[in-house]
Specification:
single chain, alpha+beta, nine-stranded mixed β-sheet, elongated
Length: about 230
C-alpha cells in the first residue's frame, strides 16, 4: 500500500513538472515570435475598431432621444472626429511609452470541467497586454486585451479595489527587482488580484491584495478552481 501511494505521489510530481516545463516552452515560443512594431500597429487599429463600435452605439442612442433631432450627417461627422481624436491620443501615448509585453494566459476549458487549473497560452492575434509602470512604479500606461482585441487602457493598473490599487505598485516593484524573464496575466484566476511571472524556469503567482506569492504548482494545489 505504501509503495502504491509513493508511486502515485511520484507520478503526480512528474506530471506537474512536465506541465510546467511545457507551459514555459509555449510562453518562450510566443515571446520569441513577436513583432513589436506590427503588434503596436495592430493594437492601435483594434483600439480604433473599439472606438468606432462605441461611437456607433452613442450615435444611435443620441438619435433616438435627441429632441433637437440633429441631422444624421452632423452627428456622424462629430463622432468621426471623436474617434480620430481619441485614436490619435492613444497612438501618441503608446508610441511614447516603453511597455512590458504581458502575455495573457487562459484556463483550459476541459480542466475547468474536472475542477482543476491548467493554464495555456492565449493564441489570439492580440494576446499581450502592455504595461508601462512609469517612474517609481506610479503608472504611465496600462493597455489590456481580451478575446484577441483591444479592451481598455488607463494610466494606472485598473481596479475598483482601493487595497489592490494601493498594493499593485509595491508588488510590481518587488517583481521587477527580481528581473523576471516574463510578466504574465490570467484574468480567469482572480481577476486583477493575480499577476504572474517567470523566473529561473519557474512560474510564480503573486496575489496582490494579500501580498503573497506562490510557485504556480503550489498555487494550484492550494486554491484549486473554486474560490
Amino acid at each position: 500500500m505504501k509503495r502504491i501511494v509513493a508511486m502515485l505521489i511520484v507520478n503526480v510530481l512528474i506530471f506537474t513538472n512536465i506541465y510546467s516545463e511545457n507551459l514555459i516552452w509555449q510562453i518562450d515560443s510566443v515571446y520569441q515570435s513577436i513583432d513589436t512594431v506590427a503588434y503596436i500597429n495592430n493594437m492601435i487599429l483594434s483600439c480604433e475598431d473599439n472606438l468606432t463600435k462605441s461611437a456607433k452605439e452613442m450615435e444611435d442612442l443620441e438619435l433616438s432621444f435627441s429632441y433637437k433631432r440633429m441631422s444624421i450627417d452632423s452627428l456622424h461627422k462629430y463622432y468621426q472626429h471623436w474617434i480620430k481624436e481619441r485614436c490619435d491620443e492613444f497612438s501618441v501615448k503608446i508610441n511614447k511609452s516603453r511597455p512590458i509585453y504581458v502575455l495573457n494566459l487562459l484556463l483550459n476549458k476541459d480542466s475547468i470541467k474536472k475542477g482543476k487549473i491548467v493554464l495555456e497560452v492565449d493564441t489570439n492575434k492580440l494576446n499581450f497586454n502592455l504595461f508601462d509602470f512609469g517612474k517609481n512604479f506610479k503608472g504611465n500606461l496600462f493597455v489590456y486585451v481580451k478575446n484577441g482585441k483591444y479592451s481598455e487602457h488607463d494610466t494606472h493598473y485598473i481596479t475598483f479595489s482601493q487595497q489592490l490599487g494601493k498594493n499593485a505598485p509595491k508588488v510590481f516593484r518587488k517583481i521587477m527587482r527580481k528581473q523576471p524573464k516574463y510578466i504574465l496575466y490570467c484574468s480567469e484566476l482572480e481577476g486583477m488580484n493575480t499577476i504572474l511571472y517567470v523566473l529561473n524556469d519557474k512560474i510564480y503567482v503573486y496575489r496582490i491584495v494579500q501580498l503573497k506569492e506562490y510557485e504556480l504548482n503550489d498555487y494550484v494545489k492550494t486554491f484549486g478552481i473554486s474560490r
